Amino acid sequence: MLAPDILLSAVLNGLLTGAVYALVAVGLTLVYGVLHIINFAHGAILSVAMFAAYFAWMAGLDPYLAMLVLAPAFYALGYALQRFVISPASHGEDQNVLLVTLGLSILIENALNAAFHSDTRSIDVAYGLDTIDLGFTFLPLPRVIAFAVACAVGLALWYLLTRTDTGKAIRAVAKETYGASLMGIDVAHIYAVTFGLGAACLAIAACLLLPSYYVNPRVGEAYVLVAFTIVVFGGMGSVPGALIGGLAIGVIESLTGLFFGDSLGQLGIFLIFILVLLLRPTGLFGARA
Amino acid sequence: MSAARAYGLIIGVVALFALVPLAGPSNTLLNGMVLALLIALAGSGWNLLGGYGGLFSFGHAAFFGTGAYASAILQSRYGVNAWAAFAVAIAIGAVVGWVIGFLSFRSGLRGSYFALVTLAFAEVFRIIANASPFFGGAPGILLKLDIRPANFQFESRAIYYWIALALVGLTMLVMRAIERSRLGAYIVAIRENENAAKALGVNSLAVKLKAIALSAAITAAAGALYVQYFLLVNADLGFGTWISIDALLAPIIGGLGTVFGPLLGALLLHELGELTRAIAGGVPGIDTALFGALLILVIAFARDGVQGVIGRLFARMTRKTAPPAIEAVS
Question: In this predicted complex, what is the ipTM?
Answer without folding.
Answer: 0.87
